[in-house]
Design goal:
The chain has 20 helices and 2 strands. By secondary structure, the chain is mainly alpha-helical. Strands 1-2 form a two-stranded antiparallel ribbon. InterPro entries: DUF112_TM. This is DUF112 domain-containing protein.
């Protein structure tokens, strides 16, 4: 454990400009997470163009702090309106909203804020401890190891996505297909460009991300413009947990934090699944399972500790192997690439200051998040009642500006609008967007590694089943594909 590098990064963050970025990022994340219809992925995608001319360290501090703040801020709407500000807070609605409606909104918010803080700290400890050893192990990976790891990640993402395995696979394959237009890296010839010269450089990551997440959400919110939330009065009473509360909920909080961290490490799963698994586990081992769904303190703590823990957990595969642990991590990979930084096992050697900046930001942003939310939750809660008719046009304006600023061409704006429609239609068809975006990000890397491996072996693909790591990753991918089918068959057989 490199404490000297960590303290060096913390010292750099506490200089004026990086700390300003951290404060703004965390506060904006909380605010956006608290406004229904706006998500952390949307915020970070919109902020990406603003980081073009920043120092890479400052850009990373801003984006990672937004990530932490957005996941935490979602609990405000989940508790007060039964509308999760982020998908990660869905489970919080089950118990947070009933507790708020019973006259204890401060208590419900306080439990969620403290659980988020503890979950973030525990996950950060794992991030600090295991990332560097894992990156050293990953340096021993060759092209076939990376190719099969990426394929396993894609299958894993599809198998745990909302909806069926088939829909998850369709989404991932569509994302891979969309990444194909452009110049073939092996032959140098255009492919799938349909003689349209603007496609020779391929579809850019930024317009695709902004369209898929921001514009599709704007379209969805425009259709629900007339829905108004019920008001719930919030005060600071009960926001701070007592030592007795900590003792009573310590086991649940620690268990849920480790579950969230582990789920976060698994590539592409994200905070939503982490909170579901932790909530289910808490209910199964609780002495009062009948209270879950009616305002259970255990349920709020399990959901929020787990979903915040996935943030630091998801940074582990991003830093160590260059594999995004969530959709937002896929956007962070795009941010690093914009600054000519290649995520992966050599990142500690080539850009150690950036790595330690990310790790230090995850720690300080969690502490700042707790301070900001406990001191100003009653004021932040009022933001959820902002009229969407004012918010959405401003967000759309930033979408257009961000896409146009990439290359100063309207082509990127049209790409953004097209993917906004595509993202909206995919969600209407219950096809998850996560596998689509991560497929788009990972497919070029998978193709590059496969081609490199085949060139090294003169076209021989047998190392996939003769080397231990590729074979293990392939077997896991096959099991992940087969297991849902077998489980469904067994369930139908039992029902019959």
């Amino acid at each position: 454990m490199d404490f000297a590098s960590l303290f060096g990064a913390i010292g750099q963050i506490f200089t004026p400009w990086p700390f300003f970025m951290l404060f703004i990022g965390t506060a904006l994340g909380i605010v956006v997470g608290a406004i229904p219809g706006l998500t952390g992925a949307m915020l970070i995608a919109l902020t990406l163009p603003l980081t073009f001319y920043m120092e890479p360290f400052n850009a990373v501090v801003l984006l990672v702090s937004m990530y932490v703040g957005a996941i935490s801020g979602g609990l405000i709407t989940a508790t007060l309106m039964r509308m999760p500000g982020t998908p990660a807070s869905v489970m919080t609605t089950f118990d947070g909203y009933p507790m708020a409606r019973s006259g204890r909104p401060g208590r419900a918010l306080g439990l969620g804020i403290t659980a988020s803080f503890v979950g973030g700290l525990i996950a950060w400890g794992v991030l600090f401890t295991v990332t560097k050893p894992l990156s050293i192990l990953a340096t021993k990976f060759g092209p076939f190891e990376y190719f099969t790891l990426i394929m396993m990640a894609m299958v894993l993402i599809a198998s745990v996505s909302e909806g069926s395995l088939v829909k998850g696979l369709i989404s991932g394959l569509l994302g891979m297909l969309v990444s194909m237009p452009g110049v073939d890296p092996a032959t140098g010839m255009p492919r799938l460009t349909f003689d349209w010269y603007m496609l020779n450089g391929g579809l850019q990551l930024l317009p695709v991300l902004i369209g898929t997440f921001a514009v599709s959400q704007i379209i969805k919110d425009c259709l629900d413009m007339g829905k108004l939330p019920d008001r719930a009065e919030v005060n600071n009473r009960g926001v701070l947990m007592s030592l007795r509360d900590f003792r009573r909920h310590a086991v649940n909080m620690i268990r849920s934090s480790f579950i969230g961290t582990w789920i976060g490490i698994l590539p592409g799963i994200g905070a939503s699944i982490g909170s579901v698994v932790a909530y289910t586990m808490a209910k199964n081992v609780s002495d009062h399972p009948e209270e879950f769904g009616r305002g259970s303190e255990e349920g709020i703590i399990a959901s929020e500790a787990a979903n915040n823990a996935t943030v630091s957990g998801a940074l582990i595969p991003l830093i160590a192997m260059g594999i995004p642990g969530s959709v937002i991590d896929a956007i962070l990979i795009g941010a690093l690439t914009i600054h000519s930084i290649q995520p992966g096992p050599t990142l500690f050697l080539t850009n150690g200051d950036i790595v330690w900046g990310m790790i230090a930001t995850a720690l300080i942003a969690n502490i700042l998040m707790w301070i900001l939310m406990t001191s100003s939750v009653r004021y932040i809660a009022n933001l959820i009642y902002l009229p969407r008719s004012f918010v959405l046009p401003v967000v759309m304006m930033f979408c257009v500006i961000g896409s146009y600023a990439l290359n100063n061409t309207m082509f990127d704006v049209w790409v953004m609008l097209m993917f906004g429609v595509i993202g909206f239609l995919l969600e209407r068809a219950k096809i998850p967007l996560g596998p689509f975006v991560i497929g788009f990000v990972l497919a070029p890397l998978a193709e590059q590694k496969l081609r490199s491996g085949l060139m090294m072996t003169a076209g021989d693909i047998s190392p996939i089943w003769t080397r231990p790591f590729p074979l293990a990753f392939t077997i896991i991918a096959i099991l992940l594909l087969v297991w849902p089918i077998v489980s469904d068959w067994r369930r139908k057989r039992r029902a019959a």
